[in-house]
């Protein structure tokens, strides 16, 4: 087989580890790998790693020492053209012209929506690998990059707690996650935050302010509220204003962590997950699978249809929501 591989959408720590795994698993089994740069935009432009499909496929050596690197050496993009019928046809023609039999897109839900659309105009095999800090894909316990992003955010919160305690302040820390609260909830639990505001659970500002006042009366010197960017309160700044109006007993500061959560070297669990899923994607292609995502469930690799991964909202672990509330006393 000649396998194309690309990284698409928001980058995530571990994309390089997944790419390395795809290349090494495929070349070990005698397949060729074409690295496509800049996601679907690079596919449309026929922008290939090492200068072009004819000038060289990726080799085991071309992915040396990238496992530990953040970002993606293939680069990524958000590509509007690919969402149009014309863009999809151009991409399909590029795949045919370069003799690519199968594609492994590494990315999130948008990337998989694109893969499903591509599958309607191109007859090659497609197996996706889930990589996004949002952990918002159904069909895999964890996405590549999530654990590292949580660790990065927790490291920031540990530092914010030091200054919050010194000044007896409340910090509202906004984390990414798009319309999903997985990153916020895991960050709050691991960072010993008192409160997490997530899109999946609606709580009004008056109730949050009441809870904060209770915590103050219990002797809390500092408060950390983790706010998911997609929360219905409108983010950390908007919530801070509402809490001030509702009566907040602390001096407050807001921090938006932003893209710092996307960077950095992948944690060992992300490196291992990425390596397992990249290898499994190649083996699944060889077994004839297509239109699927390589996911992980309770430590075992599994295939789910790409369409399933984004059809429904991935629910938060309910027990973790309750656990956070029980710890906030
Ligand atoms: N419905 C769609 N049809 C075709 N392509 C899509 C569709 N949705 C997303 N894409 C492509 O996938 C890319 C990555 O999606 P995006 O949502 O930006 O990131 P992620 O894959 O991380 O969720 C988009 O920039 C676009 O090119
Ligand atoms: O990098 P951009 O374009 O500002 O996008 C920010 C978005 O990308 C993410 O970091 C990752 O989301 P995706 O993996 O779905 O691309 C979101 O958490 C955030 O909302």
UniProtKB/TrEMBL annotation:
Catalysed transformations (reactions): beta-D-fructose 6-phosphate + ATP = beta-D-fructose 1,6-bisphosphate + ADP + H(+)
Domain of life of the source: Bacteria
Ranges of residues in domain Phosphofructokinase: 2-283
Gene3D superfamilies to which the protein is assigned, alphabetical: 3.40.50.450, Phosphofructokinase domain
Alphabetic keyword roster: Allosteric enzyme, ATP-binding, Cytoplasm, Glycolysis, Kinase, Magnesium, Metal-binding, Nucleotide-binding, Transferase
Record-level GO BP terms: canonical glycolysis; fructose 1,6-bisphosphate metabolic process; fructose 6-phosphate metabolic process
Record EC number: 2.7.1.11
Cofactor(s) for this UniProt protein: Mg(2+)
Similarity annotation: Belongs to the phosphofructokinase type A (PFKA) family.
The protein's name in its UniProt record: 6-phosphofructokinase
